[in-house]
Design a protein that fits this description.
This protein is α+β, with helices and mostly antiparallel strands and 271 residues long. The protein has 1 helix and 12 strands. Strands 1, 2, 3, 4, 5, 6, 7, 8, 9, 10, 11 and 12 form a 12-stranded mixed beta sheet that branches. A hairpin with a 2-residue loop joins strand 1 (76-104) and strand 2. The longest helix is centred in the first third of the chain and has 63 residues, at 7-69. It is elongated, with a radius of gyration of 32 Å.
């Protein structure tokens, strides 16, 4: 017996194949797009995290370069930075007031009042996060004062606050009793205490991204001396405040006189 052909069924079957193909294609494209976007986001996070690590190394390298030229007038060095996900800020001297007090025989006097700049790398915490309130020093420590001759002047700290992870570099004050000398002309011992301060000269606040060379040039090295009588062997006190951070330490003094020699290196930082 001959079967009758039903065109409508054939057309419906063909249409269903076409619709299925479209759905499968659309689903595949959607999955590929989602996977691509996810992969791009992961890659973006990895690149930003890598930049953060490189930025820390660049800041440490810049500190080495700056300390190398700080006490050599007209000497200059530079460090390469690559910043795409974050930003590097140069903050002018008005941002960080600096003061230094000495206490001898119970009397306190201020022998240094100045300002200094600092630099800061910032990255959104959507790329790197340690938790709000996080603080970790990658160079130096929280003290604004160094006693002795071994520690770095630089102080670099990683902080996380208000949606940003930052690496901030500033410079501490160093103090050291360098000698005690008998001076026949005055019939007394003289204690000599040297104090070193690196002042960063940054003319204005500015933010930098992309690739650039951060330069440091020593403009000058100056000194000023302050003399005090020392009654009996005692400890002199030195107190330093840099911004909101303050520190103090004692230095042993021999009866006679003490001469504080404050040496300031003026270093210009520019791109």
């Amino acid at each position: 017996m001959r079967r009758l052909s039903i065109p409508l069924l054939r057309n419906n079957r063909a249409a269903s194949y076409a619709i299925s193909a479209v759905i499968i294609t659309a689903t595949t494209v959607t999955l590929v797009l989602v996977a691509s976007i996810y992969a791009y986001q992961i890659m973006d996070l990895q690149k930003a995290a890598a930049e953060f690590e490189v930025a820390k190394k660049s800041i440490l390298a810049f500190n080495d370069a700056l300390e190398n030229i700080a006490w050599k007038p007209n000497a200059a060095r530079s460090t390469r930075f690559t910043v795409k996900y974050g930003q590097l800020e140069l903050m002018p001297g008005t941002q960080l007031p600096v003061s230094l007090n000495v206490t001898v025989n119970g009397s306190t006097q201020t022998i240094l009042t100045n300002t200094t700049g600092f630099l800061r790398y910032s990255l959104s915490d959507k790329y790197v996060t340690f938790g709000d309130g996080y603080t970790s020093y990658i160079l130096g420590n929280s003290s604004s004062l160094i006693i002795g001759s071994t520690a770095s002047y630089g102080r670099a700290v990683v902080n996380q606050q208000s949606g940003w992870v930052t690496v901030t570099l500033d410079y501490r004050v160093r103090a050291m009793r360098t000698s005690v000398t008998w001076v026949p002309a005055i019939g007394q011992y003289v204690n000599y205490v040297d104090i070193w301060f690196i002042k960063l000269k940054i003319d204005k606040w500015f933010t930098y991204i992309n690739e650039f060379d951060l330069k440091a040039r020593c403009l000058s090295v100056t000194s000023a001396t302050y003399s005090f009588n020392v009654v009996g062997n005692q400890d002199g006190q030195i107190g330093v405040r840099i911004g909101s951070s303050s520190s103090s330490a004692s230095i042993a003094l021999v009866s006679g006189k003490v001469v504080f020699n404050v040496v300031t290196a003026l270093v210009k930082v520019i791109v």
